[in-house]
Specification:
Blueprint: H1 3-6, E1 15-17, E2 20-22, E3 28-32, E4 39-44, H2 48-65, H3 70-86, H4 88-99, H5 103-124, E5 130-133, E6 139-147, E7 150-154, H6 162-174, E8 178-181, H7 187-199, E9 207-209, H8 215-224, E10 228-234, H9 237-250, E11 253-257, E12 262-266, H10 272-284, E13 294-300, H11 301-317, H12 335-350, E14 354-358, E15 372-375, E16 392-398, H13 401-409, E17 413-414, E18 416-420, H14 424-433, E19 438-441, E20 456-457, E21 460-461, H15 466-471, E22 474-482
Parallel strand pairs: 7-8, 7-10, 8-9, 10-11, 12-13, 12-18, 13-16, 15-16, 18-19
Antiparallel strand pairs: 1-2, 3-4, 5-6, 6-22, 11-21, 14-15, 17-20
Helix pairs in contact: 2-8, 3-5, 3-6, 3-7, 4-5, 4-7, 5-6, 8-9, 10-11
The protein binds adenosine-5'-diphosphate.
Adenosine-5'-diphosphate binds near residues 155, 215 and 243.
Protein name: NAD-dependent succinate-semialdehyde dehydrogenase
InterPro entries: Ald_DH/histidinol_DH, Ald_DH_C, Ald_DH_CS_GLU, Ald_DH_N, Aldehyde_DH_dom, Aldehyde_DH_Superfamily
Family: Belongs to the aldehyde dehydrogenase family.
């Protein structure tokens, strides 16, 4: 597919400010297909002046957008939901080309991403509030939630559509205007989503997009600008921590969705087939490049052999390759991602682990790594301490529940977690003991627009989706009325 067939717009005019599509002041940058490294587009490279122009527009638009009736804001979001479904195949194609994930995963992402527009279209008209009397008398209290202001949104490459809609939708529902910087690896999907928002009737300046290679410059410009009152970031803990420090200078309201290190626990009474099915989703969806991906498997000794045999057989059956060839697992995002995985797997094998199963690798020249199961992994192996962001499943045997909980909670991360047991009460008891923002019980998928997505410890601050996702873009105000 050529880039003209792929795109119905010119990405070199990819800076959107005040409703106008413009060239980037730093020229353009290339976007590659990670399956074959072919350049698929040249995208506007926005600089710090483009970043400021975006805030100019967002600040102007805020005055009227915040006063736009909730129903009208809701209807823009609802139309965006419908337009995403109209263009679902096109969006899925874009995602597979710039991110590399399989077409099935890309289609699922488009559906998930669109749901944020629908969910927050529904939430926009239910802003909530409270009314009460002061206990001592003499006053009534009215509590309202006002939009926080211009919101800076910074998104990663692993879910190019969903990470954008999960932030844009609640911001707009709350009455905020936004400036968005998508990841330089995957800007095309965000531009396509922004075009749909314009088509859906979003007023000029409400949504502004600055793609660019100078991520630090753009972010610093936004966080230093007194008109920006909110930062919502999804990405690595390393960058999240830098942004939090910058946000501290002006006490900017911050929501952070950072790295994970999800444990996947299989108990002795688990339905092993269900656990394997859950593991395949939790581990290999998007090639393991999700912050919710199962990162370390703790399998009870009594079911270890059966689980590994079945997981291994399913892993070996996975087809790896370009999404255009119908493969189930695509390439990793970059050559360095492949290098990192090769190194950590080699170190783990040197420490006594064994590769029990592996899928076959295509000879395509892209950034491919074979889905791999590692067994006999020591419970203190370094591979269990870091987010792998790739299709490798290290498996540890457990017997003692107290020890298992120590292993699970030893991580500084606490985003998703998974537990499989036929005894629901036991699974819930374990899940409640995990230091994690999300627990999948007998399922390998936790993401849902109606549920509060987020983590504890260094996995982040705040929640996205659900009612809480709207609150992240509001500030509570109360009016105390003499009575
Ligand atoms: P990942 O490991 O998923 O690439 P990153 O945290 O590096 O995670 O990137 C997530 C987003 O943060 C991307 O949009 C990227 O361009 C942006 N980013 C990277 N470095 C910085 C930085 N120093 N300041 C602000 N944003 C950054």
């Amino acid at each position: 597919m050529t880039s003209t067939q792929l795109l119905s717009f010119d990405p070199a005019l990819g800076v959107l400010t005040d409703g106008r599509w413009q060239a980037g002041r730093s020229g353009t940058f290339a976007v590659e297909d990670p399956a074959d490294r072919a350049v698929i587009a040249h995208v506007a490279d926005g600089d710090v002046d483009d970043a400021t122009a975006a805030v100019d527009a967002a600040a102007r638009a805020f005055d009227s957008w915040r006063l736009t009736p909730p129903r009208a804001r809701s209807e823009v979001l609802r139309r965006a939901f419908e337009l995403m479904h109209r263009d679902a195949e096109h969006l899925a194609d874009l995602i597979t080309r710039e991110n590399g994930k399989s077409l099935a995963d890309a289609r699922a992402e488009v559906g998930y991403a669109a749901e944020f527009f629908r969910w927050f279209a529904e939430e926009a008209v239910r802003p909530g509030g409270d009314y009460g009397s002061a206990p001592a008398g003499g006053a009534r209290t009215v509590v309202t939630h006002r939009p926080v202001g211009v919101a800076a949104l910074i998104t990663p490459w692993n879910f190019p559509a969903a990470m954008a809609t999960r932030k844009i939708a609640p911001a707009l529902a709350a009455g905020c205007t936004v400036v968005l910087k998508p990841a330089a690896e995957t800007p095309l999907t965000a531009l396509a989503v922004a075009r749909l928002l314009v088509e859906a009737g979003v007023p000029d300046g409400v949504v502004n997009v600055v793609p660019g290679t100078d991520a630090a410059g753009i972010a610093t410009t936004w966080l230093a600008d007194p008109r920006v009152r909110k930062i919502s970031f999804t990405g690595s803990t390393r960058v999240g921590s830098i942004l939090l420090k910058q946000a501290a200078d002006r006490v900017v309201n911050a929501s952070m969705e950072l790295g994970g290190n999800a444990p996947f626990v299989v108990a002795d009474d688990a339905d092993v087939d269900a656990a394997v099915a859950g593991a395949m989703v939790a581990k290999f969806r998007g090639g393991g490049q999700a912050c919710t991906a199962a990162n370390r498997f703790y399998v009870h000794a009594d079911v270890h052999e059966e689980f590994v045999a079945k997981l291994g057989a399913a892993t070996e059956r996975l087809t790896v390759g370009a999404s255009s060839d119908g493969a189930e697992v695509g390439p990793l995002i970059s050559a360095s991602a492949v290098d990192t995985l090769e190194q950590v797997v080699a170190e783990t094998v040197a420490a006594g682990a064994r590769i029990s199963h592996r899928a076959a690798l295509p000879d395509l020249g892209g950034h491919f790594y074979p889905p791999t199961v590692l067994v006999d992994v020591p419970a203190d192996a370094p591979i269990l301490e870091h987010e792998l962001f790739g299709p490798v499943a290290p498996v540890v045997r457990w017997r003692d529940e107290a020890e298992l909980l120590r292993w699970v909670n030893a991580s500084e991360m606490g985003l998703a977690s998974y537990v499989f047991s036929r005894d629901l009460q036991r699974a819930m008891r374990l899940g409640e003991a995990f230091d994690a923002g999300m627990v999948g019980i007998n399922r390998g998928l936790v993401s849902d627009p109606s549920a509060p997505f987020g983590g504890v410890k260094q996995s982040g601050l705040g929640r996205e989706g659900a009612r809480e996702g709207l609150r992240e873009f509001t500030e509570t105000q109360y009016l105390s009325i003499a009575w």
